[in-house]
Amino acid sequence: MSAVERKLDDIKSTIVSEVPNDISVSDVKYEGPELVVYTKDPKRFASDGDLVRQLASKLRKRITVRPDPEVLSRPSDAREQIMSVIPEEAGVTDLDFHPDTGEVVIEAEKPGMVIGRHGSTLREITQEVGWTPEVVRTPPIESSTVSNVRNFLKQEREERRDILERIGRQIHREEMSDDEWVRITTLGCCREVGRAAFILNTPETRVLIDCGDKPGAEGEVPYLQVPEALGAGASNLDAVVLTHAHLDHSALIPLLFKYGYDGPIYCTEPTRDLMGLLTLDYLDVASKEGRTPPYDSSQVREAIKHCIPLEYGDVTDIAPDLKLTFHNAGHILGSAVTHFHVGDGLYNVAFSGDIHYDDTRLFNGAVNDFPRVETLVLESTYGGRNDYQTDQEDSEETLKEIIRETTTEGGKVLIPAFAVGRSQEIMLVLEEAMREGEIPTVPVHLDGMIWEATAIHTTYPEYLRDDLRDRIFHDDENPFLADQFNHIDGGEEERQEVADGGPCIVLSTSGMVEGGPIMSWLNHIGSEEKSTMTFVGYQAQGTLGSRIQSGWDEIPMNDRGNGRGTLKLNMNVETVDGFSGHADRQGLMNFVRTMNPRPEKVLCVHGDESSVQDLSSALYHEFNMRTFAPKNLETFRFK
Amino acid sequence: MSAVERKLDDIKSTIVSEVPNDISVSDVKYEGPELVVYTKDPKRFASDGDLVRQLASKLRKRITVRPDPEVLSRPSDAREQIMSVIPEEAGVTDLDFHPDTGEVVIEAEKPGMVIGRHGSTLREITQEVGWTPEVVRTPPIESSTVSNVRNFLKQEREERRDILERIGRQIHREEMSDDEWVRITTLGCCREVGRAAFILNTPETRVLIDCGDKPGAEGEVPYLQVPEALGAGASNLDAVVLTHAHLDHSALIPLLFKYGYDGPIYCTEPTRDLMGLLTLDYLDVASKEGRTPPYDSSQVREAIKHCIPLEYGDVTDIAPDLKLTFHNAGHILGSAVTHFHVGDGLYNVAFSGDIHYDDTRLFNGAVNDFPRVETLVLESTYGGRNDYQTDQEDSEETLKEIIRETTTEGGKVLIPAFAVGRSQEIMLVLEEAMREGEIPTVPVHLDGMIWEATAIHTTYPEYLRDDLRDRIFHDDENPFLADQFNHIDGGEEERQEVADGGPCIVLSTSGMVEGGPIMSWLNHIGSEEKSTMTFVGYQAQGTLGSRIQSGWDEIPMNDRGNGRGTLKLNMNVETVDGFSGHADRQGLMNFVRTMNPRPEKVLCVHGDESSVQDLSSALYHEFNMRTFAPKNLETFRFK
Asked: Is the ipTM of this complex over 0.85?
């Protein structure tokens, strides 16, 4: 009997002795980080609301109870009973029975009503039918990404169960080493922005945090080939942890599966879906530009299949000596500050990922409240001594003023924007301003992946700012469903119509004017003197966006756009900053200042050379902590 | 045709075009870092003294010329001719012909006379007989280690040639990467003394520097299992470089071959022989103490077979982007400061190994004169703020006083000493003092490996201090051959005789009284009140030596010695410091101070926590350079 089996046996004995005698325990299995208890008496189990909680706290594990397949009622019977328990207002749109595990997946417009207060309705369902309910939200706006991911995972359910069991046994393996140390190796995004990738390493465990590419520098990828990364074999990684879905953090995650990795990817549920959306688009763009993508869509599917979604605040065992907890990072949907607790009180490391410290319209500000953090790995995008951003309130005023002026002249406002994050923030600004009559209510056309990304946002309102979440639950208050928003899904024809029409606002990708439908919009309305192009996001050097900002008015239209030759740009060009998804210098300092306790060491990463040096030096002088501005390919040892 | 072959072909064309038309070039091969040119006209080749030198400088390679086997004269004829060329005073003791490579190994008591002024006699030999002569010294004192190593290498000659050719092709492979960086990973001996091991790593190349154990802490071995060491496979190492033969630097070198390593070990010739002696003894001690050694003698033989001996000052290509040069370190026989030149002027790193900065009786002081060194990895054994040693002159006076007093009383002086280094230093002190009449000429008995180690010293007088080297060349002045030195080779019986006799001096291993014949000497004379035990070397905490120093006079005699139970120690106990093989604090500071140019960065290693911190801080404050006191398992990136 292996050590893992012996441990499972011990756990089973504990469970048997803890539950009342008349409740049978037929099997206990690992499923990823969770423990699944199979019972022939699921209804009895469910009738004691505290039982699972007691077991979980006794065993210090997340526990799911499932019915032994032998005792399952017929799905057709169960369906009726379930529907009679759930209030009609919940808006159940689908029930999906899985006899192999005794689970029933309930898709509903209002999942909260299926769950009930403290899970009371869920327990009632089990008490009635024995099946274990799992609830997902029906996207308020239809999202092909969400439905593709869900269908794919349904189809791969059986293989996924095998994967999760294997991962579970791996997580709960016996510790092998008496040594105690913690190391971080920097594989990318040090003294640069892009290609985020770090190795967190103990004598037991090796975890990769993020695996991104470097925008504008194809081929500059993280140093995965060095032995401390995957050089010793991709299978030597225990886990991959993804802080958020932006490509400079996620683009090369699927590549790991080409290299033979077959372990878990821990991320939030929205990060999983957005990663699917963005990496598939990444492949699409690469092939449109005639580059050979480093992997194909089958590896994206592998990545999604290996995702283990975690919610903010879940403390999760991901290795014998490592606990992982995600916290809201305020940057984009599902973005997480990632906290690792090493050993039994040995050491704590947090990776900020990308953060926004203050609340925005979309998200609450980043969480910096951890029981302990000895070392913080902190993003420094705006860490430079002069990197202060305009207050968003002032920025919004400027944007509204531009819109008022342009529309009064009968012009159109063209806003290049990233599909994920900034677009939704701007949508919220526009919706409110129109509702309050501060700007005229004109059509707002959303082009590129913006609509799809917005749909994903509405699928996961738990990840949005409290008041926004509450509004989304009410169809008539969901700001993203406001009438003036129009999803451009009619291609060139629809764009031509819009161009020929009256004043309007167009939000279109790509955010740095490096391809995508924005090129077509430039073709259509770029020559209109009364219209205004308005930049609301960071334009990296060398991009067309940055050139237009700096005054270029002759635009070479290559085959990325739809035109040929050169386009004369007559539009007004405006820039409104202050809508960044990143904390500015003050936000980064505040993030550290308000930590309690503060970390002993801070590694400043994810910023250009001067930003990381400036931030590192400021943190050192202000808080008297040890700070570093690492280079790529260094290894730091803690403990 | 592979890139390596293409390059060899180019080289051959260059050689053909450089040598006169009437000299044929039949083949060109790599043999380790050297280039071997085979010719049918070896005599013509040899007649032009400058030809090889010109080729070497043109190709920037070390070049050896050998006769095409087709044109070799018969060994019996050649032998006669060779003997007629070499002056009789050279004392040739053996000629060994190798028809496969056209080499003749000449063993002589005075190799210099076989070589002649600027190699003139060697060239004369080739001009006469065509064979390529190689000269080795007949040990002035018979050494079983030297003769075993030489016989073994002779026997493995053919396999060794294959190994060298493989290594040669590896060294001269094409560079693969456009990246440029240099990293050092610390695998041991950081904030501690012992288990020296470092990885020097570029995008092309991975080199292990030293691989020692930690005395007094069995099982605390270098972190070879981490991926940046051998975790990615021992075959991922390009080369192993050994600074000197002490076990805390060499003990685990043979283990690498158990792990599958089959590349070169670069070291000096005496280091190779001493490593053989010391690692075999290491296995012997382990098995006597009932421990299971981590490898066996077959791996020691593999290690010796893979040694590529280099002389001080030889600049050697060991990888496409790495040149290695050894310099005298002044610590023990063959010890080397190790200089790496990375890329074509990209970066320079020196590892001090263990050093003695000032001249001693045995060795010239450590060399610190390099064209360039950006980073120095510096030993810090005596780097603490109070680690100043007594001047050796004063120490010698004290030792002589102790000897005078003890022998006057009719007692014996028992000196525990390390076989390699300190014993020979003390022998030189005693020989001179007796010759000059400063102490009475009494027998000096040498027990344990001391005699063998001394024999190895006399085999390589080039590695000794200038004046000592000159004296060794004259039998009647060789201080190690002085009449009073007696090698204890008669076991317990001889020791009993000595113990029963009159005043004498006994030098015996082990140096820290942790086993070996010293235990037997304690048994024989430990109870004599008129005799004196005199410590001349460092006694690590926890060793019996350190306990006796601190006043213990009841000695538990376990089966390491020959006695049983407890021994009452009545001898006087004295300690004379100042004979260390390590630079003291002042020496270490001077080593850095007199470097020109000084390095930008210094990593202080090989010292306990406070020593490395003190030295690091002192170097920073005095020379305003970046200094570090690394932990094990950190990676530093330069460039």
From this structure: no
